[in-house]
Every structure is written in structure tokens, then in C-alpha cells.
Amino acid sequence: MERKFERLQEIIESHQGKVAHLIAILQEVQEEYRYLPEEVLTYIATAMKVSPATVYGVATFYAQFSLIPKGKYVIRVCDGTACHVRGSEPIHFALRENLGLTGGESTTGDMQFTVETVSCLGACGLAPVVVINGDEVHGQTTPESIVGAIKRIVSLEKQGESKSPSETGCCQNA
Amino acid sequence: MSSNGKLIIDGREIDIQGEKNLLEIIRRAGINLPTFCYHSELSIYGACRLCLVETDKMGLVAACSTPPQEGMVIRTNTLRTRRLRKMVIELLLANHERECTTCSRSGRCKLQLLAHQLGVKEVRFGKRDKKVPLDLTSPSIVRDPNKCILCGDCVRMCKEVQGLGIWDFAHRGSKTVVTTAFDKELSDVACVNCGQCVSVCPTGALTVKSEIDKVWNAIHDPDKIVVAQIAPAVRVALGEEFGLNAGEDVTGKIVAGLKLIGVGRVFDTLFTADMTTIEEANELLVRLEKNENLPIFTSCCPAWVKYCEQFHADLLPNVSSCRSPQQMFGSVVKKYYAKKLNKRPEDVFVLSIMPCVAKKFEAQRPEFTTGGVPDVDAVLTTVEIAQMFKEASIDFTALPNKAFDNPLGVGSGAALIFGASGGVMESVVRYVSGLTGGDEVGRIDFLPVRGMEGIKKAYVKAGGKILKLAVVNGLANTEKLISMLKSGEASFDAIEVMSCPGGCVGGGGQPEVNDTVARTRRAGEIYEMDRVQQLHKPQDNYFVVKAFEEWFGGVNNHETHHALHTTYVPRRRINGKPFIMNDSQSQRLQVSVCLGTGCYLRGAYDVIKEFNDLAENRGIAGQIEINGTFCLEKCDNGVSVNVNDEIITGVSPENAGEIFINKISPLVDKNLR
Ligand code: SF4
Ligand code: SF4
Ligand code: FES
User: Fold this and answer.
1) Were both Cys, which of A125, B127, B344, B489 would link to B484 (CB 3.0–4.6 Å)?
2) What are the residue boundaries of the 2Fe-2S ferredoxin-type domain, all occurrences included (chain B) (predicted)?
3) Quick check: B573 and A43 CB within 8 A?
């Protein structure tokens, strides 16, 4: 039986519940749950004896934290100056179009893909850069190449041979 | 650094008198530098940049966050400082909804005031383009995010003084907002409605929820009679709204003003404050005799009561069951006085005039009704009643003094001091001393519980015993005291809690400026009024003694418990959804373990672990679904567990195994069959 709460408690304990470690704790917790659900943030606030509003404030301050569930594949398009100049915008656009994301949406309805932009991944030599699930780096991408990469993931998923996402625990409907 | 010495402010030599920052010295020197984010009672934030001054060595600095140094040369009034101050206001106004004339803060808004004072004639920057909805869910407070200037005053007030931290900054950059946890509505978070954040908010972003129109309607309704009660702390503060000094006694003028606008009977909350003391002191004496539910906590402060319900449900049996004076008043008017008037409870409109914003919440609690109608129909703050007088064009300072109506218009000095921190305790001491010492007991002035200090401790001899008493104000202080109590570091027999600093004189509904100076003056006048009051102890109030006899046939009995006492409910801090811990959607036995604060602290997590292990050991893990859930509102009694919609309380890590085997596991077998 999976016990996510145990992990949450372990994480808090490994930091001795120190408020100064709040950001680190949130990071680890997000790795565990892939996002920061309201209930988990409330739990953290209670366990650390700070107000839920404070934890919410920290969680919304940093772009790396997400309070809504993300897809199984999180695609980050770098939009730092170098990438921007070399055409990150059309790449971002192509991705969203290919995945059918509209308006303010960043995650596909089937919870498979999340597309977001980040400011500078520090790999400007490879611009424009796209990173999938934090470890799969695509350099010198074009709209075509990145759409190709997505197609590959989709077909692997269909064959059931997808590599499991780097984070444990996975999303709720996996 | 702040060693005494001298510095130069605008060419004048000024002594440093131990001040921690330049701002305090500059203000002492007669220059009232404008500020948004500085409050002497809160930590220093240094964000609004209004207090900028030029110094010889450091250039431009924020006076509020710069320590004074010997020999410093400071200029407050230069081209640069004036230009910058104006610009700060302009920038704030650019992002602020500027519907000033209809804003409830208009006329007392600091932003409006400073724009005028600093000569801002145009706003050169863009206009706020989007309007976000107001939060009207709280019975006490209205939040209008469109008017927030992000000064952070409310954030620090709620965190530092009340220890609650309801507000905080969220998001970043141009998207920054001050909001609640998860941007929830105020009624969905642990706010206790004390109104202290409203007190410090410089703009119309946080305001008191007005009930003025409701009261006008009742006054103009020919079928209704409006019966008013006035709390002690109001009479020493209301004058401030009309330019009088803090602490001026305007009791008689308030009575006169109320009659003038058409209030039918004007009574005094002091009457039921005397009843409160008598009931509560008797409750204490019984508990002392039985040695149970000690220490007793006072229950007059509705913000404290809600706080206790949310965070210390295990202490609820210790909270006095007495209703607050406001609610006792509502109850006796609707149950007894209405009959005297030959009226039905719904035709008597009870108007409360309070220094307090949480009283609005209290009046709406479902427990406080008679014949299906609320005991208190409307609660107006000191500021709101002043507003009514203004709406009626009453020249308040010119009003003659009028006396309260009878019989509910008489109160002792002991009731009067309810308005200051320590007053309820002193009143109890007076009553008990009178009771045990008889007639020869003269005046009892119990000085150790008086004053603005956050936590006060005192001892008193009563019936051969020494009672240990504590008086706290501010919920952060209260939390400190409770943790001392729970850790065994301290023990008491009785504890008075008031949520607002200094007690009700510092309530969230009091006029601005509501700082320590104003509070001390108001409390000072209350004690002065008490000093000249003939009726000293509650039992000296003949009308109250008679009312107890007539209506209830005595004190602290079945009748009084029906009309003057109440019960409490554990409450959740935040309205959360259950937290799913495993991925099953099947029809398995649902077991949810409460992870609310109380249960968390009593080892809810260990209970879950124990349940999970046992489920696995007994091979029924597949038939059972164990969840964590956020607060089942049964917080008084160990960890609570919900099994198929039935709540088992009193679970602990120690008895978890037993409970699982006896109460949960058999249900699985039943499910299987
Ligand atoms: S009313 Fe009191 S408890 Fe509520 S947010 Fe304001 S300061 Fe905090
Ligand atoms: S709500 Fe008022 S006190 Fe709080 S940050 Fe905004 S303007 Fe300041
Ligand atoms: S008062 Fe100094 S920065 Fe706001």
C-alpha cells in the first residue's frame, strides 16, 4: 500500500521542521507529489507551526512551485534572452498548438503534458533549449524537431513502453 | 549605536533619547513625517519609502529603518525628498481604485489624506485596469483588494500581535497581492474577526462590515422598538470621532444622541456585565470546590472563543459557559424585558454598540436566539455609531448629557472596568472578596491585573485558599500562556483572555489612532470613572440582584444556565477537502484519520501508520482505504477517525491497534459477507 503521507512526514522531519528550510521542504514535497496540493500545504503549515497563508505565500512566490497538478511530462521552453532571440517563441507556440492547449491552459486534459516557459536554463550555447521532465535536454530545437519529440513520446506511451517519469509517486490519475 | 548623543535635524540640534530609529526622533522634533508601513507596535518593514530623508553620510535613507548615530546631519525637507514622497503617492494611486467619494474609508484614508497633504495634484501614471471582486463573506470585515497598497501592515498585525497570520503576501512582482491562504474567502480561514488588521489598514482595502442601514431601517420601522446597549469601552473613545481627546468620557452625550436619532430605550451593557461576573465567579467557586475544569477561562471575548474553538478545542470545557455581557443583554431583553413591553421578541430590535468587530460574528452565532430570532439584531462599532450621528447631522460635542433608562441602565464600577484588560478578573476578585469577606470588605482595587502589559499574573486569597490568576491580551500572548500551561511550566486557577491589545479599549471597532497611547488614555479614564462610582462590586448593583431573584430565582442555577450560559463547538481552521492517500476508487471500507491541528499533535500520523501496518498484517489491506482528512471537528478528545461515516473519537497511537481490531476490522468482514 502506498503511503504518501509517510513521505511527507519524513521530509519535514529530515529538516527538523525548521522554518528556514521551508523552501527546501516544498521542493522535496513537490518532487514527491509532482505539485503542491492545498491539503499538503496546510499539513506542512500545521506541522511547522507557521500559518497556511505564509506557506501559500512562499509557494506562490517561486515559479518552480505549482499548486495545480502537472502532466506526466513537463516540458519547459527556455525563454531567456539567447533562446528568445533564436526563436523560442515559435517553438512554444508549436508545442501548444500541437498539444491543443488554449487560453491560459498549460496542461493537457489527459494530464499527459504540461508546457511552461522558464527564464534561462543556463544552457545558452544550445539555444533554443527545451527540457522535458528536468533531465531530457533538447538543444538547438526547431518547431519541427520538438513536435517530433512529442510524437515519439506519444507513440511510446501507446505501446506502454514509456519510461516512468523521473519523479516518484506520479500524478493522481496515472 | 543608539547610545545617547546628539544629531542635527533640519539645522536643529536634537538629543537622541534611546530611540531605535530616526523616525521616532524626527517625530519628537515636531516633524510629522508621513508613513504607511510604520507602526511603533509592529516590526519594521521599510517598504513604503514615504519616510525618506537625506543624511550627510548615507544619502537617502528610510528613517523608520535607520538607527540614529551621533553627529548625523538629517534633512527632511529637500527638493528631492518632497519630490520622491509625492512620487510614491502617485505610484500607489496609479494602482489603486480611486472611487474615493463612495469608499467607506473616505475622510480617514491615509492615502487620500497624504495625497492631499503632500500636494499631489495629478497622477501621471496609468490607471488600474481590472477590478477584482470584494470578499463579503466575513460577518465582520470587508476586503476590497482593489484598494490594497501592499504596505503589509495587516500582515504584521495579524502575525505579530494575534499570532494567526491570516494575511500574507503571495505571488511576485507586479502580481503581488496580500491575501489569505490559497486566496480563500475570509469566512473559510481561521480569522477570529478581531479587526486589528482593519485598525492598521491605511486604505479602504480592509474595512468593518457596516450594519448602519439595518439599524436605520429598524429605527424608522413603526412596529419595532429599538433597545440599545452600550459597552464600557465605547464611552471613553467615541469623542475621538468628533475631535475630542482619547479617553474623554462622553457617556451622557451618547445616550442623548441615541435618543435623538430615535432609539427607544438606551440601556447599559454594564448591567449584564455585573450578571456575567456573578455567574462566572460562582462557576469558578463550584469548579474550585469540585477541583474540575481548572483553570477557568473567561468567555467575554468572542475572538478568543473562536480561537479556542479552532486551536485548543481540548480546553473548551475550561472556558466559562457564561455568555458574554452583550449576549446576556440580548437574551434578557428578548426573554424578559420584551414581555414587560408587551412585545414579541421579533418586535424588539436589540442594538449593540461595541468597541469590537468580533461581536458582529458573536451576535450571528446560531446559539444566541430566542423564539427563532437573534438575541442581538445588530452590532455597531464605536466608529459606526459616530457615523450615524454624522449622518443625522448631530452636533455631538454640543449635546447635553442624558442618563440611561431603567432598569437595565445601572452598572457597578466593576462592570465598567470590563473595558480594560484585567477588568473582568478584578471584577471577579471584587465579587468573591465581597462574598467571603462580608460587608466589612471595603473597596478592592486590584492593581496587579491592570495595565497594558501582555501577560499579567497575580495572586489573591479567597476562602483560606490562594488563587493563582493570569490576565492576557493579544492572542499571540495567549498562545504563549497556553503553551506554558500545557507544558506544565505554569498553572493557574483563572485566566482572563482579551484578544485585542489592552483589552476592549483597543478593540478593532475603535476610532483611529488606536495605538498604545490612545488605549492607555481610554483605560485610564475607565479606572477614573470606576474610582468615583458608588456601586463598587457587582453585588452592590441592587437592580442586578433583584433581576436574578425575579427572573431566575437565584444565581448559577438551571434558569440562569438556560438564559445566560452557552456551549462551544470545535471548529476547523481551514475548509479543506479530504486528502487521498492511495489510489483506489473501489468500494473499500473508508477510514479517514483526522489530521487537523489537534489530532496532528496527538499523533494522528502514528495512528495512520498503525492502521496501515495492521491492515497489511491481517491481509485486509485490499479491503480498506485509509485516508487522511482535514479536521472532523471533534477536536476535544484525542485523534478522530471516520469509519464509513461514523466518527470514532479518542483514538491515540497507544490504543490504535485495539480500535482497529475491535472497531474497524469487523466492519471489513461484514463488508466481505
Ligand atoms: S480580523 Fe484579526 S484574526 Fe482576522 S485577519 Fe484581521 S487581525 Fe487577523
Ligand atoms: S490590506 Fe491594507 S494593511 Fe493590508 S497590505 Fe493592503 S493596504 Fe496594507
Ligand atoms: S515608514 Fe519607513 S518605509 Fe514605510
Assistant:
1) B489
2) 1-80
3) no
Residue among B109, B194, B300, B599 flagged as catalytic: B300
Residue B39: CATH number of its domain: 3.10.20.740
Q: CA–CA separation, B176 vs A107, rounded Å?
A: 24
The answer to the question of whether A124 is labelled as a binding residue is yes
| C-alpha cell belonging to residue B425 | 478578573
- pLDDT tens by residue, B267-301: 999 999 999 999 999 999 999 999 999 999 999 99
CB atoms closer than 10 angstroms to residue B534: 7
Q: Which of B147, B231, B169, B181 is nearest to B500 (CA)?
A: B231
Per the model's pLDDT, the better-predicted residue between B599 and B22 turns out to be B22
Q: Which residue's C-alpha comes closest to atom 3 of ligand 2?
A: B201
| Complex-level ipTM | 0.78
Into how many domains does chain B fold?
A: 4
Average pLDDT over residues A151-160: 83
**Domain membership of residue B364 as a residue range:** 213-398+405-564
Reported pTM: 0.84
Query: What ligand is nearest to the CA atom of residue B150?
Result: 2
B463 & B350 share domain: yes
Residues B504 and B652 in one domain: no
Check if B527 contacts A (Cβ < 8 Å): no
> What 3-state DSSP class applies to A70?
coil
Mark yes or no for CB contact A3/B582 under 8 Å: yes
Q: In 10 A of CB B324, how many CB atoms?
A: 29
Residues B150 and B225 occupy one common structural domain:
no
Provide the CATH number for the domain around residue B184.
3.30.70.20
Ligand 2 pocket test, pick from B103, B147, B149 with the greatest ligand atom count within 8 Å of Cβ, gives B149
Using most ligand atoms within 8 A of CB, pick from B142, B155, B186, B194 the residue to mutate for ligand 1: B194
pLDDT of residue B46: 87
Catalytic residue list contains B504: yes
**pLDDT (tens digit, 9 = 90+) per residue, B97-121?**
888 999 989 988 999 999 999 999 8
Look over chain B and give the mean of its residue pLDDT values, rounded to a whole number. 91
Residue where one domain finishes, among candidates B77, B98, B122: B77
Q: Residue B174: closest CA among chain A residues belongs to which residue?
A: A61
The span from the CA of B230 to the CA of B117, in Å, is 36
Interface of A with B in 39-78 (CB under 8 A): 39-43, 45-47, 50-57, 60-63, 67
Query: Does B316 or B462 have the greater pLDDT score?
Result: B316
Top residue of B589, B599, B605, B611 to mutate, by most chain A CBs within 10 Å, is: B605
Q: Do residue B538 and residue B463 come from a single domain?
A: yes
Cα(B504) to centroid of ligand 3, in Å?
A: 28
- Once rounded to an integer, what is the mean pLDDT over residues B600-605? 79
- For residue B575, being part of any structural domain is answered with no
Taking the CA of residue A56 and the nearest CA in chain B, the distance in Å comes to 6
pLDDT at residue B631, rounded to an integer? 65
Q: Which long-range contacts (CB under 8 A, 24 or more apart) does B241-247 make?
A: B241/B382, B241/B383, B241/B386, B241/B396, B241/B511, B242/B386, B242/B396, B242/B397, B243/B397, B244/B397, B245/B521, B246/B511, B246/B517, B246/B518, B246/B521, B246/B522, B247/B518, B247/B521, B247/B522, B247/B524, B247/B525
Q: Is A78 marked as a binding-site residue?
A: yes
Tell whether B352 and B485 lie within a shared domain.
yes
A167 — pLDDT class (breaks 50, 70, 90):
very low
Residue B181, chain A, CB below 8 Å: the answer is yes
**Are residue B126 and residue B172 in the same domain, yes or no?**
yes
A140 touches chain B (CB under 8 A): no
* Rounded (5°) CA angle A11-A16-A21: 75
Contact (CB<8Å) A6/B609: yes
Q: Is the pLDDT of residue B128 over 80?
A: no
Active-site annotation holds for B289: no
Q: Which of A56, A59, A12 is nearest to B605 (CA)?
A: A12
Length of chain B in residues, anyone? 673
Domain final position from B166, B189, B208: B208
Say if residue B145 is in the same domain as residue B72: no
* Residue B66 sits in the same domain as residue B116: no
Ligand 1 contacts (CB < 6 A) are B 141, 157-158, 162, 164, 166-167, 191-197
